[in-house]
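Example with several molecule types.
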Amino acid sequence: MSKIVEGLFYTNTHEWVKVEDGFAFIGITDYAQESLGEIVFIELPEEDDSLEKGEELGAIESVKAASDILSPITGTVVEINESLEDEPELLNTDAFTNWIVKVELSDESELEKLLNAEQYKEICE
Amino acid sequence: MYYDSLIFEISNKGRVGYSLPKSEFKSYNIPKNLLRATEANLPEVSELEAVRHYTNVSTKNFGVEKGFYPLGSCTMKYNPKINQDISNMSQFSLHPYAPMKSIQGILEIYYETQRILSELSGLHTFSLNPYAGAHGELAGLMIMRKYHMDRNDTKRTKVIVPDSAHGTNPASATVAGLISVEVKSNLDGTVNIESLKELLTDEIAGIMLTNPNTAGVFEKDILEIAKLVHDIGGLLYYDGANLNPILGLARPGDMGFDIMHINLHKTFSTPHGGGGPGSGPVGVVESLVKYLPSPVIKKQGEEYIIEDSNETSIGQVSHFYGNIGVVTKAYTYLLTVGKENMANIGRYSVLNANYIKESLKDDYLLPIKGICKHEFVFDGLIDKSHHVTTLDVAKRLLDYDVHPPTVYFPLTFKESLMIEPPETESKATIDDFIEVMRTVAEEARVTPDLVKGAPYNTVVKRLDEATAARKPIVKYSDLLK
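Resulting structure tokens for the full complex:
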């Protein structure tokens, strides 16, 4: 059974969003990393890139497949997690502490439309 | 003595295979900037060492000529030797700039192959110029785009691709300057008509489909799909990857497709994969013929001519006329099989696939029940309690000298294991494969760790694929660092 963290927002395409000090941190879920298998490469956006809700934010390659990361929200990239470029396997180690991008939200109300831990759990079952 | 050396490792300084006669030429004054700074690192071996090395290396390869190769979506059929013999004839070793009158034979082969493909597919004309399947796709989508552009219908920038499609489909669409949009599939991989209807707008350039689809299921609603797409002004593209099972039985042109490509290296028994090169002819309905890649080969009276068609066409996509040596092989195959036997190719490949599917469905999870065409997908083992994955099964098959099926594709299932046994395989071979697959399923229950550690009998054992992908070493000189 893969891990799900309470208090985060989720998408049905297996991304999570955590809001802290007005910024949104986006990552992929434990379920996603488990399904992908060993991750070997990650393509990240650049700082100041604007993200559209539901549009591609980056891509992940594992030994099994390549998969797009879809942005759960609209906003502007403030920071990327550079350590993932050299060590994408960190996502396999802990998908919830290793966020992928830090984003300035354009529209906070978008968060309400995302799933909570309980709803996301149902999708994974 | 087990042999696994690199040629560099058996090298001995000063050892030679040949002694060359003294050069009759004076040394040239080659400018210094054109000279190497260091001596080339070349292996120094005797003739016997060189022969023995490469003979040993050749036995470590796996191909259709060594064993069963049920690689889904790839149609790994045997390539009869006569194809190679004909293609190698000195009469076909011609210079592309030779005068037209002196190369009538090869032009006739090009023209006739093109006509046969037209008759088999129901499309009006083919160009054999593209070099491979994805290249044919690209040419086809460029034709689709140019057709809309010529009508000043510039809004049409989107191509519909099913979520179960081959990865080349959205890639070709993107390279052709179009945007791919995904249509949802039903569980059996067929197009979900309701989702399709939602996507059909005046921005749609067309749709790309394989039929039978990636799961080996025939798209029964194809006529309705064709009507829906044509009604909104879009075109239908047929990916010829899965043409084998319907050869001589059904034609994409009759289903309503406007553009298609054929993989000669799948359906028409020319070498495939690392043994290529490939060839991906692109065919179109009559109204699109003027867009086919330039140059075109035509028949004028009794003479075959090469014509530049750059003014109306999408332009040139290859050097000269594509991989003409591959075309001679396919032509040989087409004539060897003959029109009257063409339908048996599909019948036997479909029979082989269904026989394996039904024989193994008690051990492997069959998500799509019923009759399939030339291939089908298992969703891993039925008994998953021992955590033996599709990857483990594939690795274990190597120990039994079977090439693994396609794994983890299509993406619609988590543990996809996609099997395609071509018509060239005998019942005895297929029975052996079924036995091996049952043995592996049994091992997964009784000795799961054995399967998880496989392979054991191969040149290299279980690879650390993650490290290989993260830190690839692809050159001998990298290994020395």
